[in-house]
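Entry:
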Amino acid sequence: MVVSRLPADQSDNAATINEGPGDVLDLDHLSRQTLGNPALEREVLGLFLDHADRQVDLIRGAADIKARREAAHALLGTARAIGAAEISSLAGDIERREDRADAAIDALARAVAATSSFITARLAG
């Protein structure tokens, strides 16, 4: 089961089950990673929430390419672990780039915000 954002005209933070582009979170992957344990899922998702925004800030504020790549790589791994394919892909792109990648970082920040919003709602509900 893959969860995707709805088009912006339907809701800024809503999510639906879908098998298309723009995936926010692959819940089947998350379940496999957490062995179907709801408590472990909550813990892993909470760790993502704690980690993701900080990594985006580190990527955006990196003093050099090496620091930016390290922060992007850390976020890539965290995203991959929970099934956040869009974030993983965007972070991987930033990790490979030689330029400042400002537009890519903005896209990454939007993807992290959408995924974090979905996770927050999932943990609250």
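Confidence is low (pLDDT under 50) at residues 3-22.
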